[in-house]
Design brief:
binds NADP nicotinamide-adenine-dinucleotide phosphate, globular, about 40% helix, alpha/beta, about 280 residues, 8 strands, about 15% strand, eight-stranded mixed beta sheet, Rossmann fold, single chain
Length: about 280
């Protein structure tokens, strides 16, 4: 398995370097809690990749704001994190596809932390199925969650990063956003949209010292896989070959800590199996 590769297909200039997020800028030495006193928002933290990332960032010392629609899942997670780590954890239910909900989230973060350093746009849903069998309502929800959601979170939460002097936003895209395949047309479209949104944002946010990274995971062992199978699409790879969410979380954490990722802001995390 080759878990990580990094690419910079755009060849654009390095930008938005964030000394605020590097414990020892210019050095590869990383302290035990390099994200101490940094506040990180993770959307879709209730399960899967978001949950694995919550454990990872808590271990690195970050204070966390965890969101998803299911508050119970978040409360179970934050209780575990509080037992194991020293970080502050705030959980707040939010539907990233609804403007009022995201505005409320930003208000809660401002009230509790006053600022933000890291924003992870991870919440996402994936429905598969060929066009004539697709359910338009589900596809609408996917557009709201995967594309409008990261826009809303960026619109209302990134000012809290700018006000603190800068930081980093990570948008979770997908290999499926690079090349369309049957049964995944609209999922691919949402991820391709998020990719180009991120490229534009990268240029806009440079003046605010906000790095914009995209991370493209390959097929990962989460409830995503079950939903793809529910869409009657052939399984692209067997369950045992999927990556663990912890592998993806580890790559995201390393990208957050590495100032060189300002120069190489598009990260691919994949196995040697077929692209997803
Ligand atoms: N797994 C893969 O193979 C794979 C590959 C490439 C990219 N990705 C991307 O990775 C990200 C995480 O996926 P995952 O595999 O970890 O999926 P997952 O296990 O299904 O987790 C998705 C998370 O998003 C939350 N969520 C869904 N809709 C939401 C909404 N409207 N508002 C707020 N939160 C919402 C879910 O919680 P609630 O339902 O409680 O809201 C859940 O916590 C997604 O963006 C996905 O597209 C996954």
């Amino acid at each position: 398995m080759a878990p990580q590769g990094a690419r910079n297909p755009s060849g654009r200039r390095p930008q938005g370097l964030s000394p605020a997020l590097t414990a020892n800028p210019g050095s590869k030495t990383i302290s035990e809690h390099p994200l101490q006193n940094k506040a990180a928002l993770i959307t879709g933290a209730g399960r899967g990749i978001g949950k694995a990332l919550a454990y990872q960032l808590a271990k690195l010392g970050a204070d966390l704001i965890l969101t998803s629609r299911n508050l119970d899942a978040l409360m179970r997670l934050s209780a575990q994190l509080r037992r194991r780590e020293l970080c502050r954890v705030v959980e707040h239910a939010c539907d990233v596809g609804e403007m009022e909900s995201v505005e409320k989230l930003a208000a809660v973060i401002e009230h509790k932390f006053g600022r933000l350093d890291i924003v992870i746009n991870n919440a996402g849903v994936g429905y598969s199925g060929v066009l004539f069998e697709s359910e338009a309502e589900m596809v609408g929800r996917m557009l709201l969650t995967n594309l409008y959601g990261p826009y809303l979170v960026s619109r209302f939460c990134l000012p809290l990063v700018a006000v603190g002097g800068g930081g980093v936003v990570v948008n979770i895209v997908s290999q499926a956003g690079i090349e369309g395949s049957p049964g995944f047309a609209m999922y691919s479209a949402t991820k391709q949209g998020l990719q180009t949104f991120s490229e534009a944002l990268r240029l806009e946010m440079a003046e605010h010292n906000i790095r914009v990274l995209t991370v493209s995971p390959g097929m990962t062992r989460t409830s995503f896989y079950d939903r793809f199978l529910a869409g009657k699409c052939p399984a692209p790879m067997s369950y045992s070959d999927l990556m663990a969410p912890e592998e993806v979380a580890d790559s995201i954490a390393r990208a957050l800590l590495d100032p060189d990722h300002g120069a190489c802001p598009e990260i691919t995390v994949r196995t040697d199996g077929p692209l997803q």
